[in-house]
Structure formats: C-alpha cells, structure tokens
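Anyone able to model this chain together with zinc ion?
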Amino acid sequence: AIDPNFEQNREKVDQHNGHDVWGPVDEPESLGIHGTHVAVDFDICLADGACLEDCPVDVFEWVETPGHPESEMKADPANESQCIDCMLCVDVCPVDAIDVDGS
Ligand code: SF4
Ligand code: F3S
Ligand code: ZN
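re: yes, here you go
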C-alpha cells in the first residue's frame, strides 16, 4: 500500500501535469508517487481503473507508462485541486495505491 507518510519519507524530485512527483524515480521501472493532496503510488497502481470511474469530479486521467512492470497505464491525479475528499477512490482501489489527505 501507499505510504501515508510519503511527504516525510520521500523527496520531491519532479513536477508533472501541475503536481509534484515524489521519488525515487528511475524510469521506466520506478515511477514514484504522483500528487500530494491526492497521491497515487505509480509503482503500486496496476491500472484497475475504478478510481477514474468512481471519482465524482474527474480528478484522474490515464497516463501511458510503457515498460513499467505493474502496468503500462497509471491513474494520474491531474485535477487534484478539484478533490472534494469523498474518499471513494481510496475505498475502491484494489491495491491501496491512493492516499487522500484526511484519510
Ligand atoms: Fe475523487 Fe473523491 Fe478521490 Fe477526491 S477523494 S480524488 S473527489 S474520488
Ligand atoms: Fe490504479 Fe487503483 Fe486507480 S490500481 S487505476 S489507482 S483504482
Ligand atoms: Zn502525474
């Protein structure tokens, strides 16, 4: 599961689609965590898609991640500022790849 204390335990190494990326990143095998308020551990996400289907405000967008061992698409929190903290995505992700502040 995603580390809920990633902000203490990792470092910001990049920006992507307007959000922070938390390392370590070593593409294509290691992609880190994308987002801060809505954070997705790209190394855990296996492209289930429930978060994209269920988010009422369309926070997530698919991004291509060719060569990653878990899946070659990831749910990117492209619109994390729109999040209304409903926690649906946290509840539906089968591999606990998502952390939303307040959860
Ligand atoms: Fe969307 Fe709710 Fe998850 Fe926020 S907590 S990203 S609003 S599903
Ligand atoms: Fe990935 Fe979990 Fe969403 S596996 S696509 S973060 S439901
Ligand atoms: Zn991203």
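Residues 38, 54-57, 59, 83-89, 100 surround iron/sulfur cluster (ligand 1) (CB under 6 Å).
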